[in-house]
Amino acid sequence: MASSPTLSAPDRPATPPAGRSGGTAAGARRARRPVVLTAASAAVAALLALPLVFLLLEASGAGAAAVSHLIFRRLTADLLWNTVRLTVAVTVLCAIIGTAAAWCMERTHLPGRRVWEVLVVVPLAIPDFVVSFGWASLWNWFQGFRGAVVVMTLAVYPLVYLPVAASFRAADPGQEEVARSLGAGRVRVFVRITLAQARGAILGGCLLVAMVMLAEYGAFEILGYQTFTTEIFSEFSLSFSIPAACALSLVLVALSLLVLAGDGLARGRGRVSRSGALAARKLPPLRLGKATLPVLAGFALLTGLALGMPIASSVYWMFDGGAHAIGGVALPAAALTTGGYGIAAAALDTVLALPVALLAIRHPGRIRLFLERTTYLVLAMPGVVAAFALSYFTQQYANGFGYQSAPLLVLCYAVMFFPLALVGVKASLARAPASLDHMARSLGRPRLEVLFRVTLRLAAPGLAAAFCLVFLSVVTELTATLLLIPTGAQTLSSQFWAYESNLSYGQAAPFALVMIAIAAVPSYVLGRFFNRSASSSDQGMVIT
Amino acid sequence: MTIARKTTATKLRAAAAVAGTGLLASLLAACGGTASGATAPSITLYSGQHVQTTDALVTQFEKATGITVHVRSDDEDVLANQIAAEGTRSPADVIFTENSQVLEFLQGKGLLAKVNKATLANTPAKYDSPDGDWAAISGRVSVIIYNPALISASQLPTSVMQLADPKYRGKLAIAPGETDFQPIVTAVERAYGAAAAKQWLEAVKANGSAHNYPDNETVADQVNRGGAAFGLVNEYYWYRMRAEIGVSNTKARITHLAPGNPGYVVDVSGAAIMKSSKHLAAAQKFVAFLVSKQGQDVIANPKESISFEYPIDSGVTTEAGETPFSQLQPYPITISQLGTGTAAIALLRQAGLL
Question: Are the beta carbons of B26 and A221 separated by less than 8 Å?
């Protein structure tokens, strides 16, 4: 599963930098109260709250005694230990690999940089459960904790790489020069200046990695590693006991709140300011010299393991997958269905994110902060919870209307991946200065026309990025799909799962390859987006 | 200006139409179940059986009757939970499961219709629903699967209670989350009492903690690859694995526990018709087909169904080399004694396996 580079500004508060924020603030003061925006945002927030409301309803239905009995049992301690140690290990490894790769890419004379730039990002397109399938189906060693650490690190490190690379590219070179001129050594400059400048981006990437780890299901199921999410999944099914699953989910929500709080704390300390907001200037890249070969070998190893291995393994199983050959009929249909759901959910999310992002950027305040933080909770919620919540509400309050229909599944995707869309839309709206809107309005253009012809046009690349990010995630989504998919329909992931869990690797492999092929395009587009946005503007703009 | 606008609008509309048709096509394909019900008869099947087995049976049934079957595949317990939540609004006409407990659970909720007497007459009564609410389709038996490179046949347990022996620590593979594990727990509880069963499960958990897997396929696969020395699974997982990876890659072997041992359990796969079904006649036809000679032949033919379960009709022959169904010597436990598995789940919880 893929997620977004949430890029967070190293400087706090995360408002646009001086040059523009003056305009924004003045605009906000002058503008009428944003009734429509607020109403729309509230509606979106209510939609996003459904999974949590469902959890609380079920838990309160079961009663406090039953819930505490379910939470404080032996299994919970095991799961807590498993989940926490894995999340910490993978987050730290991703931070190191992502930052190192980003630094080499942006600050050194790396031979073949254009090629590496693409290869390093594309692993984002490979579903985590395909990566784990790639490793675990060939070697036994990749089981349990160590398998999970290796597989998840390889699958999600781009989440750190993308924002950190963008931040390195946009960082103010003056500070390093000053530090150097004052006699600070290379290492000292790197630690005190370079890393400090990228701190917000590194933390943002780590936050995403941690959230993704909390919600991951498919990969751990294949690796035989038990976490809260895998257990929530079995509880939802096995014992016909939804309250038990909800109790565990509440623990997971508490864990993700802790992660968010930790992130907030880490961000609070340490500030970096920037001289001359718009002075985009690059440091001359470092010559690698003797280090060239080792660095190249490092990149070859990383992309080989993260990208080459899952693809090679799928190809291997396709040709050596045992007696039962490919069921070719289902593949195009599943690809079409997957694409359809992906497009629909991505479009819906981009539209839903607009009012929330506009409100957040143009009318900053407490609502904004609240919204930004709470939407992350959805990201850590396992897909199965969102799916059960939506089917619960349709059964209870809509007389089963729309149940197991494509629109409901698309809505479920939209709820799950909304935060990803919001990140992209917000980043790009921040690039569209409010002063241009005001200018257009003062020239007598109607509000809606200004929105479409000025604001959205300026924000277009970010909207595309948001769209791609959601599309990518839908293509690789598994658990909600299994529950809500219309009877008879198949997506690439549901079909892959059906075959993989039957050990029919030969039949599963083509679905994995098509999934990778479909998701590679948007992940390439994403890589380009971060590339361009960072080089064409300053950090505060991209990274909100 | 107007012309320019019009062309833009036309282009946009065209683009939207193209995108829309693609989307619509996939959505329609996805909603086929509800869209096409009126003319040709069709039913919706919730299937917890293995995909290939269900596909083979459905294909033959559609060919024989002209009735379309929309299949929803998932774990049987997920499907049962879904049906319980859907209640009388359930879109399902038939549910086809791997174990009896799930069907007994739905029976207890009063959601099942009676299966036609003529259909039940085709199967041995002792495997069917005690109330005639579902029909047995096929049977499986639990066996020890082991890797001879890691453990010799003589070192293997002959009783299920020996799985708790500390000498097997780190050697045993378990999949306690599988519904297949519950009949064994239920049998142990019946034979030795709840307290002993709980103690036994705790020791099994300790022995299997290094190889605690999500499903039986993984147990079979890991034992075969030498990840774990042995485990207790239904026999057909070994046959299915051998069919997938080939005889030469199959290192694992299977063997039975001592005759009559509580770990030597037969459980049955069954099918039931939902009371709320609006296509009762077609649904009855489908269940009748599953137990007919033709349906049982599909199950018996591994090339077609990759099933390797025992057809419940003893007249149908199975894979060579497999102990014939009639010659198995399992622990005597009835379908109603297996029940819904809630007692087994409670024990698994207490032991920290769930």
Answer: no
